[in-house]
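Reopening this ticket.

The earlier resolution said the output was attached, but the attachment link was broken on my side. Pasting everything inline this time so it's all in one place.
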Amino acid sequence: SVSTARSKSMVMGELTRSSSRPSSPGLQERALKAGWLKKQRSIMKNWQLRWFVLRTDHLYFYKDEEETKPQGSIPLHGCQVNELMTNPDEPGRHLFEIVPGGEKDRSALSHEAFLLMANSQNDMEDWVKAIRRVIWAPFGGGIFGQHLEDTVLYERKFGPRLAPLLVEQCVDFIREQGLKEEGLFRMPGQANLVKELQDAFDCGDKPLFDNNTDIHTVASLLKLYLRELPEPVIPFSKYEDFLTCWYILFCTLY
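Inline output:
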């Protein structure tokens, strides 16, 4: 039925828009995902069913499928999308939020995060993954194969850190679970799981490692990330300086 095919969503806070309707996206902008969503008006708090279309860098909403002029849009550049815990008192509400400008900039904004609700867990996960791909698209589609400095600078929009989230997460897990593991960084991990984790991080997900996570898979993921860096961890421009420092240290010790 139509009701089961429609994805329900609520959006709290003012949508960024001009006094008039936003211009129609170009015909060349392919729809990456589309579906019925519910949004909640920030003033009246009543629900509105609208047709949502995810395109290059915006999430547009229309009165219905036949409309060509959007009623509004959510700009996605620089945003962060997070899955939210389900409220036990409100079963069936699968929530996620779009945070404008990243979490650290929320206090400086005149509007809050856009809170959305899907009608199923799978539907919510599909929307989150699709939106994350759009957010990361200007960055080349993910962190694998990107320059280390660029990744760190980009991820600082979502909080201070000295290394990419993937590196921090892998290293922390290996320190806690794998230092006594035989064959660490030598034995291969599960190739299909390594690929799944790579795709997840490339989409901006934050997959969690637990006690059931294979330590060799995490080590293989870290090796893959380092192997695909366009430039080594020690930059080419610093290579001779590094060798000089190593030589001085060697001569001092021996």
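Reporter confirms the inline version is readable. The radius of gyration is 22 Å. Residues 1-20, 102-110 have pLDDT under 50 and may be disordered.
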